Reverse transcriptase Ty1/copia-type domain-containing protein (Prunus dulcis), 179 residues
Amino acid sequence: MLEKNKTWELVDRPTDKPVICVKWIYKTKLNLDGTVQKNKARLVAKGYSQKPGIDFNKTFAPVARQDTIRTLVALAAQKGWKLFQVYRLKKALYGLKQALRAWYEEINSYFTKVGFQRSPSEATLYVKAAESGIIIVSLYVDDIIYIGSSKALMMEFKIEMMMQYEMTDLDLLHHFLGL
């Protein structure tokens, strides 16, 4: 996966730069009933060893507030809409301090290009109105949660996102951190 995504390239080590080490993280993902869904292994960078101004400059990236996620859940329940989730498979290594900011800048640019309007009060909330309905999207780190008034519009969004970015379709939202 790391080679397929072109996560890195082999270069000569610069004499004036430290190497950022990596480590493996193992996790067991469970189904709602507690049975094992799958075992996962993730190679992560030891970002805590990065030095500001040397290895990175800016790291801030907005994350959806829990109130925003709860509002989406309430709106979906009130309107009878289904709540879906996709998970982005990262190109950058997990653990780098600047990875989340780079992802946010990329997805914000893409959403703006395809006609979404970003909320002026919540930088991770996007709305797109079309003739066929409305779709509302919220970003929470690398999870994308979305609701909409039209099944066709929702399917179109999911297909476009999966074509644009390598993503896992988590289908209906069953579990979300903090809810």
Q: What stands out?
A: The chain has a mean pLDDT of 77. Strands lie at 22-30, 36-45, 83-88, 117-118, 125-130, 133-140, 143-148, 167-172.
